[in-house]
Amino acid sequence: MPGDMPAPYLPRHVAIIMDGNGRWAQQRRRPRMIGHRAGARAVNRSIDFCLERGIAALTLFAFSSENWGRPQEEVDALMKLFLGALDREVDELDRRGVRVRFIGERSRFAAGIAQRMENAERRTAGNAAMALNIAASYGGRQDIAHAARQLAEQVAAGTLAPEQVDEQALSRHVALADLPAPDLFIRTGGDTRISNFLLWQLAYTELWFTDVLWPDVDAGLLQQALDDYARRERRFGLTSAQVATAPTESNSQ
Ligand code: FPP
Fold this sequence. Notes:
Elements: E1 13-17, H1 21-27, H2 32-53, E2 57-64, H3 72-95, E3 98-103, H4 111-124, E4 130-138, H5 140-157, H6 167-171, E5 184-187, E6 206-209, H7 219-231, H8 240-245
Parallel strand pairs: 1-2, 1-5, 2-4, 3-4, 5-6
Helix pairs in contact: 1-2, 2-3, 3-4
The chain binds farnesyl diphosphate (FPP).
């Protein structure tokens, strides 16, 4: 949303890497899936929190392109968990005005799951209270490569000149191009990496890390992240004085 000024204190778009489910289960000497199930409850708490605070978009990293390499048993169980959550939650999300979208390689999912993703998207497409984006089989580099390929196809077809391939053009073709870029990125579980999540979109995002494991996330912790965010000054490459007097674009600078 170029031209739009970020609300100074409340992030419009929050992106989260939900890490630590496995360790949460391990600490309790339980199977990893117990951690993922507890993680699904933390997903619900986070959605509630963002809706209550009036955050316009929430993007969750549910499953990376690399996660396909986990033991087959865990991948299968995760797919079952996603399906169950989709079936259970989509009515309620729809009722609350949430627009659900999935980003990532849809074609890698079994037909039944891909179909349900599509149904959830279609069903909630007209909602505007909050955009909930689930990154599933998603990778940031793949997202950028896909955008580059689309531009290359336009150049090859003669509908785009090579000199029109610039940041703005690429921004229009990466995932979530219609939303403001994330203002705040949160990663739980103690690692301080971006792990191939929304690489393009996070260029100017405020990063916030916590050791808390994802299943333990609650409104109190999310509020801490928002409070820290509100204290930070976002300069988009300008000086403090410039930012104080001349609001600038948020998405691509
Ligand atoms: C990372 O923890 C978490 C995942 C790979 C899966 C995320 C899934 C959920 C939060 C469950 C439900 C989600 C939805 C959208 C309904 P990890 O397994 O890497 O934890 P570890 O680093 O402690 O092993």
